[in-house]
Amino acid sequence: TASGTSSDPITFTSNVANPGTAAGLWGGLIIMGDASVYGGTDEVEGITGYYYGGSDDDDNSGTLQYVRVWHGGAVIGADNEINGITFAGVGSGTTVEYCEVAFNLDDGFEWFGGTVNVTYAVLTNNDDDDIDFDEGYKGNIQYAIVRKNPDKASPSGSNDPRGIEANSSDDEYVPETDAVLANVLVLGS
After folding, report:
1. 7, 54 Cβ separation under 8 angstroms
2. Is residue 100 within 8 Å of 121, Cβ to Cβ?
3. How many Cβ atoms are within 10 Å of 84's Cβ, its own excluded?
4. CA dihedral sign, ordered 117, 162, 17, 75
């Protein structure tokens, strides 16, 4: 659990002095829960030997409130970077609100299955996708602002950046992805 306030948010960032707009200086937050995931339990990129997913869609993996994640997305292998915040099988009993991911080399927020809801999210200057969900994610994302870096014509990493990337929606995937997005503003570079 990380519970900051509007006047005193919790910031997760690199230990590099004055990183400016640098990205990929450290990993990111990875939260693993016991909610439903397409294909059952799995390992999340960046962590081996630990599994997420289960059958508890009300899983409570704690609270992220007034949290900022900056300068993350470290490359840990070929085509394998850490997201700003990874929700892996995280359930609806988890509270996620007023969170920001900025200057991340990979995705801002990524959901692998689960049912966690996110409200009041700000995603700025991330090099890959800002909102990315897959593997049967069935939560709600509301009141989000995505701003791609206005100074970049293309990503600096090996990414294919989108404001929103949504996967796992055809009939052979069970559970199917069924996310609801509302009140989301996406501004390009």
Report:
1. no
2. yes
3. 31
4. positive
Q: Determine the Cα–Cα distance for residues 148 and 7; give it in Å rounded to an integer.
A: 25
Contact 151, 124 (CB under 8 A): no
Determine the Cα–Cα distance for residues 153 and 157; give it in Å rounded to an integer: 12
Please, what is the Cα angle at 22 between 90 and 47, to 5 degrees? Answer: 35
Q: Rounded to two decimals, what is the model's pTM?
A: 0.94
Number of residues assigned to the chain:
189
Q: What pairs with residue 30 in β-bridges?
A: 86
Contact call for residues 104 and 130 (beta carbons, < 8 A): no
Residue 9: asked if its preceding bond is cis (omega within 30°), the reply is no
Matching residue, tokens 């996620």? 96
Task: Provide the 8-state DSSP code for 52.
Answer: B
DSSP state letters, 139-159: -EEEEEEEE--TT-SS-SSS-
79-137: pLDDT as tens digits: 788 999 999 999 999 999 999 999 999 999 999 999 999 999 999 999 999 999 999 99
